[in-house]
Amino acid sequence: MPSGITIEAATPAELRDDAGFWQLYATSFAGAEREPAEVILRSVEQGPGFALRALAADRTVGLAAGHVLEEPAATFLVYLAVDPLWRSRHVGRALFDEADRSGAARLIERARVSSGIVWEIDDPSADVSPSERNVRQGRLRFFEKLGGRMLETPYLQPPVDGHTLVPMRLMFRPALGQELPAGAATEKLIRAIYFEKYHAINKIPSSTLERLARIPP
Question: Of the four listed, 14, 44, 54, 179, which is most buried by Cβ atoms within 10 Å?
């Protein structure tokens, strides 16, 4: 654990009142990739979701939001962010690992064994500006150091802002003894993300998600 940092799961009430959490969330993600705050709160309140805070002197300097998937059993890391002043101090790594542990523990409570942790990442090979490409490559290197690997199947983030589809990629870190999903296993994982998370919690219409799930590679 980084010196001076504690990581804890936030209750819905704590999360609702944590202005630092929401400020960090708002400044860390592009509008098209940022779901409404009430969606994160609903996820935590209903149980499949969880929110972690990295605290320094009772101030939130890092956050992680996750959602446990049951079929296949895996942790979906929805958001991970660290205050710029606290980067390069292993806060992101600590939050990532705690999200993986928290998701696996929640799956055990559901009599399920986690296959690993999955998350979305901006496509590092997209045609973007040099500065944005450097940012994306930096994120990729960060996650690769944590053991993450890019999945081959193309992926679109559903319209969490209500109207924008975002071309992204999925990365995955298998649990001990598990394999990296490929082919049909990846397609099954994407359907779980779409329907167990984005339909059940974000209320994105199933017709929209079915259409996205059928988009060929």
Answer: 54
